[in-house]
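BUG: 3D viewer hangs when loading the predicted structure for this chain

Environment: internal workstation, default settings.
Expected: structure renders.
Actual: progress bar stalls at 90%.

Input used:
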Amino acid sequence: MTMSSHKKESDDLRSPLLPPVVIQEQPPLEMLTVDQMLTKYCGEFGFWQFKHFVLTCMAWTLDAIHTMVMIFADREPSWTCEPGSGCVWDSEKSVCELQPGSWRWDSSEGWSTVAEWGLVCGQKYKVGLVQALFFFGCMIGGGTFGHLSDSKLGRKRSLMIVCILNIIFGLLTAISPGYWTYVLLRLLTGFSNGGIGVCAYVLAIEPIGPAKRGITGMSTFYFYSVGIALISGIAYIFQSWRFLYIASSIPSVIFLLFMLPFIFESPRWYLIRGKTDEAMKIMQNIAKMNGNHLPENVYIALDKETKRRDHESIETATKEIVAASIRDVIRSPLLRTRLFLLMGIYFTSSIVYYGVNLNATNLKTNIYFSVLLNSVVEMPGYLLVAFLIDRYGSKSLGIGAQWFSGIFCLIGSLIGSKENWKAMRMVCGVLGIFGMAGTYNLLYVYAMELFPTVVRSMAIGFARQAGQVGSILVPFVVVKDRCMTPWMEWKVEENQFAMLA
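Structure tokens produced before the viewer hung:
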């Protein structure tokens, strides 16, 4: 009995004093790219993406306002005869044919730069010069801010800077004491305005999943058309060019104060800059707002890192900054070919698109209605292309849209200015801008698919620069009292077709 009791006590002493430790196995690490994470966990286009997309694309409205304001600020108003001067008013007659002092500008139509500084007759080239230099500034700014948004500044900060610069230059333009000051400030406005489109587009599209990226990318240009319609309304209210520049700067102030604070930086940019914690916070925010859950064992990584499996290698790899420049695009035969072809297509498309829009000043119709009509006509072009892109693809649809625009522009140029065919020519112009609007829309979507993240903004920025070169040529033709000759329009379209071939 004693031995049995002793043995029992000995067994009790040998039993563990602490409960057994249960080792929980860590779930296997899942490394995903941004696209994979959006598709599998966060949601490709939920409420987060919708809100972010709308807020970011409002910047396109600002782009259109600061660009198309020149149509109204630099217009040539109507004139009227001075009483007792012996002058006979004729709407078809130019003031250059009249005796000095026998006529005056019709102040009921507002006051433009042309009226204030006498930019008519031998000075008329100055209207084309200031508009051309604006587009030249856009060309330089597009490449500059495209590079900065891919590198140190990021998409959001670049967008913030260009908005601030647009406000400053727009307000200073309103108090220009003379023509050459006005030219300088419009050049600087073009420089800042050139960065809006590329920064806003990439920032809006990058957080969207691959399956939804095409259709949403097609929707960005609606905001540009809204901007054109908005500036026509603003110009109708503020018909003095100085007040017009002040009023056209107010939307940028609204965007900067009430919209930009709610816009997030691109998680892709954070990733290529080695800031993986910030990228993960945004992805978690996307998942949460979309009503989804992002597991803790899921980690974000670049495409080339997704095959790694251990935490240590991920932490080391994702802290590396991935940097690139336009030289890397030029060195790659494939990317170089894509860039040069895209630049050529942008060049010819810009000539047609801006030529038709800026030519509103030469039409014998209400300028406010003409610009509004152009902006409204563009929207069906965007909508039709959005419906057809999944069926025919970006490339085939882009070629078709350019042919469509080219044919009707060519027909319209051959009709001439005969009174009996005026309605037909207007229809051809409307159909021409309809097709070109769809082309412009497709170019951004197609360009996003052609270049990797690390050089995407940069490449699109340089392609837009080529488009701005085409835009620089347009104002010198538009300031003429007539439209382009059939040969010139045919030559523009011929070059466009050759580039497609």
